[in-house]
């Protein structure tokens, strides 16, 4: 997280206050020439970022005043919801023109959610060979490596030398925009290894490629989850991940820059799911945002009512000693916080595969012990506060014991529930929070009010 | 987040249940030969992962039974707390031997936190030229690009041709293990552009490098925050980020695989900070973990007491109608959840620079409106529940109005507080949560009990 103040000169990449003001003025005036001067030379990622900073009406006017400039690169950089909005304003011919020069993975990314008419217009505009590749990619599952790989790659027969490879690359062949490895294949196109370009460049022409292959080589299957591939790329520091079909023929690659983007999206999802926000971006409308958040709030309402039902059991106890109503949220709140701490550590460790069956019991044991220790610490503090505040030592005792109980339960449920959800096949980031805070609310109120009714009345 | 069940064959990279069991048995038996057979050919990242799965005693025994195998690669892959533990078991000579073949950034990473004796032992073991590089890097600020760059890179005079470059690379020069670009420098070593190896390989020998430079070229200053560099690498899809000193001379590079790691660490920090966990890894001890979590729980205790003080103001009101004690946590809980939703979206958008001064008012306005809409929705539901449950229409009205107030305030504070903290130079991920839930607790209790005392009694 950057700690830059919001006003830095270059606050959002190349998109600063000044540029935004200039662009807005030009959009208002419908001044295409000024827009061209301001935007034509910018990086596609910066233009996409700028489009995300302005509102929907300004975006529409900008695209009208600066026509034909929205190329495929910019479309690829836009967040999904904005991309849909912008694509709706393009006719199929413009869209087809925009995507023509993209790598296959970017084309797939753009067309996969288009309606049928738009999709077939784009596909028809591509060369036949490109079209076949895109159509093939669209047959793989949504989150698979096959769907997200780029088919542009450089293969070489395993028996080639450095010299033959260089001659081939210098010939009239179409090469990917960016590539970092040459993938060696056997006569049946099965991938058998790869060689980094640095090694090719630094060895004499006669050197066989086979002598230069790298240990980091491993392949991924087209049906494999693309996030798994991205995690492996990160774990093994790979730059190029070859993707193979069921016959082990290499049919594409996933490169590290795309893997970085997938992991980034995955982190965002985890963070938002933990907060009960699901999908959603900053440019979604008010109604859309409201709709996204209602489900989790509804779940929370049920769990809050459940906690209230526990309180209702002890209505008479509270009527007998109103101080209990004053103090009872403290125990629940501390439990909720401690539970969220354990939970977040567990969810993160599951995502990074640091938490496995091998150490799950050690981790749960640790969380319970941490809960016990912190429970005792805050029991002493809060017991004293309760005693001093209300001048009732027994009340202090009740809150202290309830605190220990709830923080132990917080550690147990905070670590245990995500593990259990994962074992059952659910996403622990999505559902754990509700369960854990429900447990700590219910246990917190029950322990505190129950002990109070036993000891104080 | 992977949804794989915990028992998958290959659950944690190459480290599955079976391997762990075999390694544990061999460690127990002190059987170095079996350990070598099991581990020698594995990727350093997998061995590090395995070391993280077993406990401290097993780690010590493993290192004793499998001596001399803990090379620098494995050390680099370990999480920081484990790395310290392991390094303590190595004598300076072993340590120096282990780091000899690492890139400069990995050496810096290993030695920066060593005590003076160990650090100087390692530095003395390096070649003089390597030592100078490391010592220079250690003079840059901790989180700077200069501290984290690798000095191994390939420069070429800007007037060279493809042929001259290839001849140079084939000569007796020491090249980095991995490199993806050749950086062009002018006679004063100022970086003026770069060329990808793919372009060098695919052009005739006579082609000047200058004709092959890429648009994506931009440089970063040694003092710049390394996270900013990593974000730029992600934003602009760069593979190599050249780092320059104050005279614009290129002195190192940060590569995308390291950037991916920095962003990953940053995400983890954000996630853990939002949950009030601060630092911390799964292998920390119980006491260490307890210590890390106490500060946030202490803050939470104060805020919970603050909320209790608000309740205490209305003790008489509650004594008059105990149903209020039953229902009051619901309004606070809904506010806390809605506030956390707004807050998480805002914190994430600040981190990705999607939330800027350009759109901050639009975002805050949106969050307030979302709060209003969801407030009305849950006011209707909860008003009805309150009415039916307690048969008191006015009680239903009180809870409904309090709900609307609290969810509007949740949206306002959830979006506004992170922005304010960032403007003041604090990390919004660290501090926002406390402020927001304090606000929603206090407002929730105050609105509900205050309205109740006005309307019901």
Strand and helix map with partners:
2 copies of one chain form a homodimer.
Chain A: H1 17-28, H2 32-39, H3 44-53, H4 56-65, H5 72-77, H6 80-89, H7 92-99, H8 104-111, H9 116-125, H10 128-138, H11 145-148, E1 155-157, H12 162-170, E2 181-185, E3 191-196, H13 197-201, E4 220-221, H14 226-235, E5 240-244, E6 250-255, H15 256-274, H16 286-313, H17 315-320, H18 323-351, H19 360-390, H20 393-423, H21 428-455
Parallel strand pairs in A: 1-2, 4-5
Antiparallel strand pairs in A: 2-3, 5-6
Helix pairs in contact in A: 1-2, 1-4, 7-9, 8-10, 14-15, 15-21, 16-21, 18-19, 18-20, 18-21, 19-20, 20-21
Polypeptide structure, described:
2 copies of one chain form a homodimer. The first copy, chain A, is mostly helical. The first copy, chain A, folds into 3 domains: 17-143, MgtE N-terminal fold (Alpha Horseshoe); 155-274, CBS-domain (Roll); 286-455, Tetracycline Repressor, domain 2 (Orthogonal Bundle). Helix content of chain A is 64%, strand content 6%. The first copy, chain A, is built from 21 helices and 6 strands. The first copy, chain A, has helices spanning 17-28, 32-39, 44-53, 56-65, 72-77, 80-89, 92-99, 104-111, 116-125, 128-138, 145-148, 162-170, 197-201, 226-235, 256-274, 286-313, 315-320, 323-351, 360-390, 393-423, 428-455, and strands spanning 155-157, 181-185, 191-196, 220-221, 240-244, 250-255. In chain A, the strands form 2 sheets. A 3-stranded mixed sheet of chain A has the order 1-2-3. In chain A, helix 14 crosses helix 15 and helix 20 packs antiparallel against helix 21. The radius of gyration of chain A is 29 Å and the shape is globular. Chain A starts with 16 loop residues before the first helix and ends with a helix. At the A-B interface, helix 3, helix 12, helix 13, helix 14 and helix 15 of A face helix 3, helix 12, helix 13, helix 14 and helix 15 of B.
